[in-house]
């Protein structure tokens, strides 16, 4: 390959091949992010030029009740995503790794909710949680006749209804962890068995520590999905009742619709920064930069 | 010995309860929606578990007659296919030179490309909204194509770069010895060998585009440009008292994704593993 690189002609081709990609990067990442950063410090309605206002948008954002509610929701959702969601996905991975009868079927079916549109999924859940003819109340009424909770429109049920639209759908976690499990050298397991370790010990002391990269990645994916969760809220509760299910993207879209562009971008900046903080923390916590073997 | 046996039975009961739960939450809501699309409105309202008395497709016909369902589906198809094809072309080109050549600035360019993965799409909503208005593309399919093109950048490059890297360079060198130029080596030697990676990235992009709601909602208003997920959300008002039709529309909207998955299960699984973006 070395003989190719020296060619000047190739260099022109190389940059020609990169050009479309660089254009996309400039137009749809660099320019928007610079706009985001700059205008988050301005008052801007789209029609007139942005006016610099310092931290006013951020102050207003942090004072707003819907943002406070959204932030608390996000903390709770992130905690649930990083624990229950990732735990459930990992549990399924550990079970499927043993390849019990029907494991392939379970893996296949578990994926289905992820191949359909989040908007359609939200609509389906609208009907699942419907107070009168919904699926969930139908099931509960078998055990508790006359049960009537309007899941999406009653506090505090709405928060948990929105949570249920994602918390157990952890197929990405399962697949990531399963990938790591399959990469563990089998002689490690054999050696442990010869030493008299039982399966539980092998899982806790060998398998899980060796999966810390995929579990760390899963925590990042799961929590960043909560930061940007929009459809399953906007098409069900719209953030209500009150601000019970409010999330930052809904605040952002509302601000755009009200032509409060600077304010919208302050909310966007908060999303961006939260994502970066999350990445740094999880990377440290799971020691993801250190090699495993 | 007996203890061990009992333990084993409990273990299997335990894991099959968990697996059954997983299967039920994954498909039961969908099956329920499909079954409900064959029931009458009265049946839906009276008992969520009642079975349809007759199988007919009246509700499906009604959806096509009463809404622009076909138009929305076509819009989705056009936008998704065009965005997927263009992005595969430009990302394959970029991934190819990054995988196969050494040049100054390569690491910087590649890091900039993949760092985009860290940017949540929604946080750019307002800047992109303004950009599209500045381009005079508000409420056009072109706007969606452009936005979707950008969305798959990091993931497509990941997948395609590793695909091109796995192609032995002997092939390129041999072609080069025989006087094959840059473009020919790319088009006729490397591209055909990267088929599986192209398919994986393509399916990932297509599914993402087909299912995208957020920017479609933000950037389009008129029926001629609305895509299926956005239209579906608006059916809620159209069909607020006709649940049979709503369930029929939902069924038709989710089937394409499931069909693609049925035919390209491995690619879909691979692409989701390498992305970990949804869910």
Describe this structure in words.
- The complex is a heterodimer of chains A (293) and B (279).
- Chain A has helices at 2-5, 8-39, 56-63, 65-97, 103-115, 118-128, 135-143, 157-164, 171-182, 186-194, 199-210, 212-227, 231-234, 248-257, 261-285; strands spanning 42-43, 51-52.
- Chain A has one domain (65-285): Orthogonal Bundle (MetI-like fold).
- Chain A has 293 residues and is mainly alpha-helical.
- The two termini of chain A are 31 Å apart.
- Chain A is built from 15 helices and 2 strands.
- A two-stranded antiparallel sheet of chain A has the order 1-2.
- The mean pLDDT of chain B is 87.
- With 279 residues, chain B is mainly alpha-helical.
- Chain B has 2 domains: 2-36; 66-275, Orthogonal Bundle (MetI-like fold).
- Chain B starts with a helix and ends with a helix.
- Chains A and B meet through helix 2, helix 4, helix 5, helix 6 and helix 7 of A and helix 1, helix 2, helix 4, helix 5 and helix 6 of B.
């Amino acid at each position: 390959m070395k003989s190719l690189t020296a060619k000047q002609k190739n260099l022109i081709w190389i940059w020609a091949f990169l050009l479309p990609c660089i254009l996309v990067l400039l137009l749809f990442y660099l320019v928007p992010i610079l706009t985001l950063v700059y205008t988050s410090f301005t008052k801007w309605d789209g029609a007139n030029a942005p006016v610099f206002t310092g931290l006013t948008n951020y102050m207003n954002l942090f004072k707003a009740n819907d943002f406070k509610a959204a932030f608390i929701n996000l903390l709770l959702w992130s905690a649930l995503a990083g624990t229950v969601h990732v735990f459930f996905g990992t549990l399924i991975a550990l079970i499927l790794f043993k390849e019990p009868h029907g494991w392939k079927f379970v893996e296949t079916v578990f994926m289905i909710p992820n191949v359909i549109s989040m908007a359609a999924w939200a609509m389906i859940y609208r009907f699942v949680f419907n107070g009168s003819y919904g699926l969930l109340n139908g099931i509960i009424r078998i055990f508790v006749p006359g049960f009537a909770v309007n899941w999406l429109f009653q506090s505090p049920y709405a928060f948990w209804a929105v949570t249920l639209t994602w918390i157990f759908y952890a197929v990405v976690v399962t697949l990531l962890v399963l990938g790591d499990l399959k990469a563990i050298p089998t002689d490690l397991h054999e050696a442990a068995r010869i030493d008299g370790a039982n399966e539980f010990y092998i899982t806790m002391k060998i398998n899980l520590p060796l999966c810390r990269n995929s579990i760390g990645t899963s925590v990042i994916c799961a929590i960043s999905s909560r930061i940007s969760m929009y459809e399953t809220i906007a098409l069900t509760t719209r953030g209500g009742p009150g601000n019970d299910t409010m999330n930052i993207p809904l605040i952002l879209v509302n601000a755009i619709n009200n032509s409060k562009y600077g304010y919208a971008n302050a909310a966007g900046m908060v999303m961006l920064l939260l994502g970066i903080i999350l990445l740094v923390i999880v990377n440290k916590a799971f020691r993801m930069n250190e090699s495993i073997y | 010995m007996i203890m061990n046996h009992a333990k084993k039975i409990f273990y299997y009961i335990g894991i099959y309860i968990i697996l059954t739960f997983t299967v039920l939450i994954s498909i039961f809501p969908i099956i329920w929606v499909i079954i409900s699309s064959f029931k009458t409105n009265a049946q839906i309202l009276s008992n969520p578990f009642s079975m349809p008395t007759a199988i007919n497709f009246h509700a499906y016909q009604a959806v096509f007659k009463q809404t622009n369902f076909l138009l929305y589906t076509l819009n989705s198809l056009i936008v998704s296919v065009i965005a997927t094809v263009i992005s595969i072309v430009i990302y394959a080109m970029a991934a190819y030179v990054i995988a196969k050549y050494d040049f100054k600035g390569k690491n910087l360019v590649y890091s900039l490309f993949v760092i985009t993965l860290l940017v949540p799409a929604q946080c750019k909503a307002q800047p992109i909204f303004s950009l599209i208005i500045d381009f005079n593309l508000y409420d056009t399919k072109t706007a969606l194509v452009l936005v979707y093109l950008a969305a798959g950048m990091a993931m497509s490059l990941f997948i395609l770069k590793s695909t091109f890297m796995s192609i032995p360079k002997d092939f390129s060198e041999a072609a080069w010895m025989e006087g094959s130029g840059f473009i020919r080596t790319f088009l006729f030697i490397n591209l055909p060998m990267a088929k599986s990676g192209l398919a994986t990235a393509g399916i990932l992009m297509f599914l993402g585009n087909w299912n995208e709601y957020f920017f479609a909602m933000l950037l389009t208003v008129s029926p001629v440009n609305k895509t299926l997920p956005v239209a579906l959300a608006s059916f809620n008002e159209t069909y607020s008292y006709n649940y049979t039709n709503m369930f029929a529309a939902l069924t038709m909207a989710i089937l394409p994704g499931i069909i693609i998955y049925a035919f390209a299960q491995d690619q879909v699984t691979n692409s989701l593993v390498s992305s970990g973006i949804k869910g």
